[in-house]
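Continuing the batch. This is chain 6 of the set; chains 1 through 5 are on the previous pages. Same settings as before, nothing changed between runs. Recording input and output for traceability.
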Amino acid sequence: MANPLRGEVIKLYKNLLYLGREYPKGSVYFRERLKNAFMKNKDVTDPEKIRKLVDRGEFVIKELEALYFLRKYRAMKQRYYEPEH
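Output for chain 6:
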């Protein structure tokens, strides 16, 4: 596969794998889902379609980062602020 986007796809996979370590349902669950998603699209050769898939993966990265940030924010809020009832 001499596709110039190959490195970008591998980088995306590694970034998602790294982010999946803190996934709420567990890293094993995330890793299996990630592998299935990448294997489902392994035969795609059109550079434009690959670009769209990479962009979707980058969107997922942003969503995961937001999820983790909110989880940490909620934990900090519970520890340091009193309930507002």
